[in-house]
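**Polypeptide and fold**
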Amino acid sequence: MDYTLLAKTPLFKGTSGQEIAAMLHCLNARTRSFAKGERILHMGDMPHDVGLVLSGSVRIESVDAWGNVTVLSRVEVGQVFAEAYACAPGVPMLVDAVAAQDCEVLLVDVERVTTVCSNACAHHARVLRNLLEAIARKNIRLSQRALHTSPKTIRGKVLSYLSSQAAQAESHEFDIPFNRQELADYLGVDRSALSAELGRMQKAGIIATRRSHFVLKESPLEPSPYSG
């Protein structure tokens, strides 16, 4: 276990590798490996663990009764998932957690996090604060997705999402964490229609794109993604 790496993750920030090593047993933490495409958690599960991605990545998605998949988010190395459900006993998951790549996940018993141990250690309290912050940040990301999917047109949705990615990267040139199908699922649009719109935006000189790499060029003809 790379405790130095764990100390850099949002869940364990503010703690040292030595403190983490002492804490993991107390938190009933254990690692599991998953193959690409394997479901880590299923809709309807009531998890007791927070998952922290150690390698690879995890996709959070929903599947309706007809098999249509909507990608809600992608969890990268160092990030956590299932934290809200783990903190709400008896509430079944409305989504699946799927290995987007071969991955290794650290599972941490949330009850051990929220219950102060007999040593009442300060670093344990720090992890609890970090968990609450992670839940808050996840709620913000879900709000951002709602913002990106609210425009009426595909172009409006794309512009909203790409604008936020550019702001996050502090550059007009950046990579997004989705392939075309995942981006279409995230925005709630048809993949073919999305690809066609991206092609039109390239022809218009608004963007340049290759796979997951984007460059924002001229100002779009639509001054606001919410103009319809």
